[in-house]
Design goal:
About 35% of the residues lie in helices and about 20% in strands. By secondary structure, it is of the alpha/beta class. Strands 3-2-1-4-5-6-7 form a 7-stranded mixed beta sheet, sandwiched between helices. The structure holds glycinamide ribonucleotide. The site of glycinamide ribonucleotide has 14 residues, from helix 1, strand 5 and helix 6.
């Protein structure tokens, strides 16, 4: 079966992007990564993508309306023949229009056990709430922020003495395993 074509949207470090790319080295991986898009021209993740020889499209959203910016992204994804869009630390909220155009084909990873802690500062919020467990979720993107159906989750315990940084580090290790597995599972279950 041909591999599904995945485009990844990033804004920064890109470690989840790297994990998604690394997973494609397994011949059984049902997807390939064909495009990296960043709204930040010097995002760290772009250097990794360049070293891997993956085409990239970097364009700032600053000075554009959301509709103008999303038209650029949509065009780049369509030109690259993308089947699925993976958000990996992409820090712009997509409009309902954009989400509808890619209905059921956008996934995101979020650093909390959704539906807990949508939005930002998830690690600190879990600590402040006195939670004993935390983690990450991969979900389908809908118009509701961090609100689409959850595809997979990974849990970590919150340990005595954890601060947000230590907890984030531990969750991130799980994210790097969770995201490629959940995306592969979604694509296998649906086909490209
Ligand atoms: C990850 O922890 C990801 O779950 C989170 O940003 C980080 C990006 O790191 N995403 C969100 O908070 C989205 N709401 P990365 O650039 O190294 O993948």
């Amino acid at each position: 079966m041909p591999r599904a074509r995945v485009g990844i949207l990033i804004s920064g470090r890109g470690s989840n992007m790297a994990a998604l790319i690394e997973a494609t080295r397994d011949p059984a991986c049902p997807y390939e990564v064909v495009l990296i898009i960043s709204n930040v021209a010097d995002a760290d993740g772009l250097a990794f993508a360049a070293a891997e020889g993956i085409p990239q499209f970097a364009h700032s959203h600053v000075g554009l309306t959301k509709a103008e910016f999303e038209a650029l992204i949509d065009g780049a994804l369509r030109d690259a023949g993308v089947d699925y869009v993976a958000l990996a630390g992409f820090m712009r909220v997509l409009s309902p229009d954009f989400v509808a155009r890619w209905d059921g084909r956008i996934v995101n990873i979020h650093p909390s056990l959704l539906p807990l802690y949508r939005g930002l500062d998830t690690h600190q919020r879990a600590l402040d709430a006195g939670d004993t467990r935390h983690g990450a979720s991969v979900h389908l993107v809908t118009a509701a922020l961090d609100g689409g159906p959850v595809l997979a989750q990974a849990e970590v315990p919150i340990l005595e003495g954890d601060d947000a940084e230590a907890l984030a580090r531990r969750v991130l290790i799980e994210e790097h395993m969770l995201y490629p597995a959940a995306l592969a599972e979604l694509i296998r279950s649906r086909g490209a």
